[in-house]
Design a protein that fits this description.
Elements lengths: L10 E6 L3 H12 L4 E7 L2 H11 L3 E4 L8 H11 L5 E5 L6 H9 L4 E4 L13 H18 L7 H21 L40 E6 L3 H10 L9 E5 L6 H11 L3 E4 L4 E2 L4 E4 L5 E5 L6 E5 L11 H12 L3 E5 L8 H9 L3 E5 L9 H7 L5 E3 L1 H14 L2
Parallel strand pairs: 1-2, 1-3, 3-4, 4-5, 6-7, 6-13, 7-10, 8-10, 13-14, 14-15
Antiparallel strand pairs: 9-12, 11-12
Helix pairs in contact: 2-3, 5-6, 7-12, 9-10, 10-11
Length: 402
């Protein structure tokens, strides 16, 4: 079978939620996305365990608070049974119970999505794009590793936009909404082999790389677990501060910082406005706030703001990288990791132009090779590094150039 014959496999999803309405609402979003199917539903963790052997899904969407067996209890059992199917948390208590959500990540969940407006809410469609993106990212990666022919996440998002436009036109004309195409009918443009890459642009830095005084890191989809992997292995003697933009909603970043602080040899905190930048500290951007560096005579500080989104995000990696490029020039290290889209790519390239050292995550280890791919093609990445080597690479550069 030709890899470009357009014959794709379906991405199969199991939903586990004690609310029948919520199961149906989430199913509607998934089932209406070309190339995705809900193959089974469960009302609690025990029910989910019972159906998994026959269902064999590519990804699980899991509620936390359920009778009989909670989401947390399921994740513990999943770990004990060495079940490798990725899990995305979808729970109404996530915003109020950020600590529980972080516990789920610690237990092996890949990521989370918050239910808007409670467990029974017609507003679930407002997070439809995020549901599709994360299912496509984590489920697609797992499925491809297991030999299935699944498009990349960017392609699912493109198809979702096309489907939305198709439905809008049908509603305006008063005609019947056409059925979604089967996975086998998807365009051959949406390949599932290797993402098409351009040769990287050539950047001539304005100055040679200097002493590294600060490290700036941007990351998105796939980030919660990637950061856990990096920071638990970071050099305990690293002195430079690290500023991190992880795309994450408000209400979670303080708990996320605390969860990282438990496993990291350095001090991890949520950033705050006017917070002094101290050595051997890692600062996580607060949800819904940009972070930037401001130069002060007594020592540089972090500034937060709620200026408009950049590249569809707040916090935005571009905002952080832009300020670091301006203030530190060649005395910085920029790192761009897994994530959809292009946030951070333009301004890490500016960091490189100013003479900063730069690293990007490689395609094989990235859940979504979007942000690092664009940065590489713009010439903003000196070296691509696998996730398993990222902590060592950051630590080695920081030691060599401190």
């Amino acid at each position: 079978m030709d890899i470009n014959d357009g014959k794709h496999d379906n991405l199969n999803v199991v939903i586990c939620d004690d609310s029948a309405l919520m199961r149906n609402l989430v199913s509607r979003i998934i089932d209406d996305t070309p190339g995705m199917n809900v193959i089974a539903k469960a009302s609690n963790g025990q029910n989910l365990l019972n159906i998994l052997p026959d269902a064999k899904p590519d990804v699980i969407v899991l509620d936390i608070e359920m009778p009989v067996m909670t989401g947390v209890e399921f994740l513990k059992e999943r770990k004990a049974r060495k079940i490798g199917i990725p899990v995305i948390i979808l729970s109404s208590i996530a915003t109020q119970g950020a600590a529980v959500t972080m516990e789920c990540l610690e237990l092996g969940a890949s990521d989370f999505i918050t239910k808007p407006g409670g467990s029974i809410s017609m507003n679930v469609s407002t997070v439809g794009n995020e549901i599709v993106e994360k299912i496509a990212s984590y489920g697609g990666r797992y499925a491809r590793k297991n030999g299935k022919r699944i498009p990349f996440p960017e392609h699912f998002m493109h198809l979702l936009k096309m489907r939305s436009a198709e439905k809008f036109v049908a509603q305006q004309k008063g005609t019947e909404i056409p059925e979604k195409p089967a996975a086998t009918q998807l365009s051959p443009l949406f390949s599932f082999g290797t993402l098409e890459k351009k040769e990287p642009a050539v950047i001539t830095p304005l100055r040679e790389g200097g002493t590294i005084k600060i490290i700036a890191l941007g990351i998105s989809t796939g980030g919660p677990n990637a950061l856990r992997d990096v920071f638990k292995m970071i050099d305990p003697h690293l002195t430079q501060p690290i500023l991190v933009v992880q795309h994450m909603p408000a209400g979670f970043t303080a708990e996320f910082a605390q969860s990282l602080n438990k496993i990291c040899p350095l001090t991890v905190v949520e950033a705050a406005d006017n917070m002094p930048i101290e050595d051997a500290h890692i600062y996580i951007a607060p949800g819904n706030y940009h972070i930037a560096v401001e130069e002060r005579a007594g020592g540089n500080v972090i500034r937060t703001n709620q200026e408009p989104q950049r590249n569809g995000h707040r916090p935005s990696a571009d905002v952080l990288f832009e300020s670091v490029a301006k203030i530190y020039k060649n005395n910085a290290l920029g790192v761009i990791m897994t994530g959809m889209g292009k946030d951070g790519a333009v301004e890490i390239t500016e960091m490189r132009r100013q003479g900063a050292w730069t690293l990007g995550q490689d395609e094989e280890s990235a859940v979504v090779y979007g942000m690092p791919k664009v940065a590489w093609e713009l010439g903003g990445v000196q070296k691509q590094v696998s996730l398993k080597n990222m902590a060592d690479e950051i630590s080695a550069l920081a030691r060599e150039h401190r």
